[in-house]
Write a structure and sequence with these properties.
This protein has 128 residues and is mainly beta. Helix content is 10%, strand content 48%. The chain starts with 5 loop residues before the first strand and ends with a strand.
């Protein structure tokens, strides 16, 4: 199964002049292809590191490439990710759980060089 990646850069309360990179995976690559939800899970704390959204569950954490429908926002309590389909919210600085699967660094480097250069491995395809 081929996986294509798209990159969205958003300004959501980053340091002045710094865009926060929220990498996203595109919708199904072929009309009629069923949606696949990954079964693996991982937990950690959402943080912005070098301008990239990372899930920290150790020294380096993971750069997460989010499935479409996950958006970056900010309110009076701070940054958050929201699932536009379910309304679920995961807040930065709190422990969160996400589904997904690991992504090969060589693959991410080929299809999303900005993510590879700016954010670095390891990578996770994420959903909540």
């Amino acid at each position: 199964m081929a996986v294509l990646l798209g990159v969205v850069s958003m300004q959501a309360g980053a340091r002045q002049g710094e865009a926060v990179l929220l990498p996203q995976m595109p919708p199904s690559w072929r009309p009629g292809t069923p949606t696949v939800y990954f079964m693996a899970g991982i937990g950690g704390e959402l943080k912005v590191v070098r301008g990239c959204v990372r899930l920290m569950n150790g020294a380096d954490g993971f750069t997460v490439l989010w499935h479409r429908g996950i958006e970056l926002g900010r309110d009076a309590r701070g940054r958050f990710l929201r699932n536009v389909h379910t309304g679920a919210v995961q807040r930065f600085g709190e422990q969160v759980e996400v589904g997904g699967a690991g992504l090969d660094p060589e693959y991410v480097g080929r299809v999303a060089p900005e993510v590879s250069r700016r954010c670095g491995p390891p990578y996770w395809a994420g959903w909540f």
